[in-house]
Write a structure and sequence with these properties.
Layout lengths: L1 H14 L1 H28 L12 E8 L5 E2 L6 H8 L3 E8 L6 E8 L2 E8 L1 E4 L3 H4 L4 E4 L10 E5 H8 L8 E6 L2 E11 L12 E4 L6 H5 L10 E7 L5 H23 L3 E7 L3 H4 L12 H28 L1 H13 L4 H38 L11 H25 L3 H5 L7 H39 L7
Parallel strand pairs: 6-11, 8-10
Antiparallel strand pairs: 1-2, 1-12, 1-13, 3-6, 3-12, 4-5, 4-9, 7-10, 8-11, 9-10
Helix pairs in contact: 1-11, 2-9, 2-11, 9-12, 9-14, 11-12
Length: 472
């Protein structure tokens, strides 16, 4: 039976080459667009999922009592006080950045040759940083890489740029800081190409150093210098809500006097690590962050594009009803039941959708370099193992959605009428086709206008960000 359905489907495709091309290529275009958007959404949703103990790791942010403004960082002494005062805390760490250190020159002297490059996204961090956040180390030991003063941990691209294929651990780099040139020892190399983090780091500098370490240690006021991003990892089994309830009484006991002297109040709250990239909207946020609203919009666009492609498939299938009517009549006279005909036409739809998916994957491979350039990412179609499952589900859903109405419509023909050449186009069937066409054009126009608005806003945002002091 299945072989018979397949033979009939291939025969119909070969008999109507133009129709088959339009139908398959139209569906393939919609599926390719969906796959590209899906790849982007999967990539954006994958930030900070790799951290060990990430489900119990948080960033501590604050809210100003006077204005209600939120802020992503805390004063310097908050981190160690958290560790000392609250038994639920397993480990804590800080990260420090400001505009003057967004771009620093790194130098390496090897014999008579000196290599130097201006590098962006370098951060000062505590020695506990890699005990709280997980990075894939190629060289060196993560847990102890920042224990020594004036230690530096660099990304694989920077290591390749300065040292080639050599192991750089133990070698010296000169960092040109705002406080002068300082010697740093490379104690680790991490791979930042696979694991995605909301911290767009190219290198990390130990906060215990000879350039700004003394200044950082001297920040003991609880009301000023709220520029230390503070991450806390709680012990296994700690209830987040119970822990968060203890934070503000603790913060008041520690910071109350300094805040009162400064004339304002402040409360603190926890941000789950996995939520920061897409859901955080606090002040002093990292420049490289996503927006969950954009993903919802893109997901809706993908769904509507696929719906338009399926509607196009339905209309083309039903428009050819006269050419398939005699086939239906003969098959019914020969004893075929309605259920068998429905299965046949659904099978044809699924086979065509499978062919369209193969074409869509070819289109995705061709368009991927241009899509990566547009999104400024390095997406690969099969980097995500479960994407194959999504492709299978998308193919099945598209085949069923596009084939259900034509299957029921064509299988409902009466054999006596169609064999006499009398096909009755019921008002309801005509109205459905016209309604689908109107819906198709309405959605298309809305998507075109939406794309124009997004493009204009993106251009405006790009101009504003070009002068932003924290741009990456």
């Amino acid at each position: 039976m299945l072989y018979n359905y397949l033979k009939i489907t291939l025969r119909n495709l070969a008999r109507s080459k133009t129709y088959s091309f339009i139908n398959i290529f139209g569906l393939a275009s919609g599926l390719a667009t969906c796959l590209l958007i899906m790849l982007y959404i999967i990539d954006e949703s994958g930030y900070d999922k790799h951290h060990i103990g990430g489900d119990r790791t948080y960033r501590v942010a604050s809210i100003s009592g006077a204005t209600g403004d939120t802020w992503a960082a805390l004063p310097g002494p908050a981190s160690w006080a958290l560790k000392n005062d609250l038994p639920e805390v397993e480990e804590v760490t800080r990260l420090l950045t400001f505009p003057d250190i967004q771009h620093m020159t790194l130098k390496v002297t090897r014999g008579a040759e000196t290599r130097q490059f201006i590098e962006s996204n370098g951060y000062y961090v505590d020695s506990t940083f890699f005990r709280v956040l997980t990075y894939n180390f190629i060289h060196g030991r993560a847990s102890t890489s920042l224990n020594s003063p004036n230690s530096i941990v660099i990304s694989a691209p920077i290591a390749n740029k300065f040292f080639g294929k050599e192991d750089p651990v133990g070698k010296t780099m000169i960092v040109v800081t705002p406080f002068g040139e300082r010697n740093y020892t490379v104690n680790g190399v991490f791979d930042n190409t696979k694991q995605k983090s909301h911290i767009p780091a190219n290198y990390f500098l130990s906060m215990r150093n000879t350039d700004m370490g003394t200044w950082a240690e001297g920040q003991q006021n609880w009301a000023s210098n709220n520029i230390f991003y503070t991450y806390v990892k709680t012990k296994a089994g700690t209830n987040r809500l119970s822990f968060e309830k203890k934070l503000n009484p603790w913060f008041e006991s520690r910071a109350g006097a300094d805040l009162k002297a400064a004339g304002f109040t402040k409360t603190i709250f926890l941000q789950p690590l996995a939520d920061i990239y897409l859901h955080s909207s606090v002040g002093f946020e990292f420049p490289s962050k996503g927006n969950i609203t954009y993903l919802y919009i893109l997901g809706s666009i993908a769904a509507f594009i696929l719906l338009i492609a399926c509607i196009n498939f339905m209309n083309l299938s039903t428009a050819r009803s006269e050419r398939r009517a005699r086939e239906v009549g003969v098959r019914k006279v020969m004893g075929a039941g309605k259920r068998g005909l429905i299965y046949q036409f659904l099978g044809e739809s699924l086979i065509m959708c499978f062919i369209a998916m193969v074409v869509a994957l070819l289109l995705v491979s061709i368009l991927m370099p241009y899509f990566n350039q547009l999104t400024q990412k390095n997406l690969q179609p099969f980097d995500q193992p479960y994407l194959l499952l999504w492709i299978a589900l998308l193919t099945l859903a598209s085949g069923l959605l596009a084939g259900l109405y034509p299957a029921f419509y064509l299988s409902a023909f009466k054999p006596v009428s169609v064999l006499k050449g009398k096909i009755i186009n019921h008002f309801s069937a005509t109205a459905i086709r016209k309604g689908l066409v109107v819906f198709q054009f309405t959605v298309s126009i809305c998507l075109i206008f939406g794309a124009i608005v997004i493009w204009q806003q993106d251009r405006k945002s790009t101009r504003l960000n070009s002068s932003h002091p924290y741009r990456s």
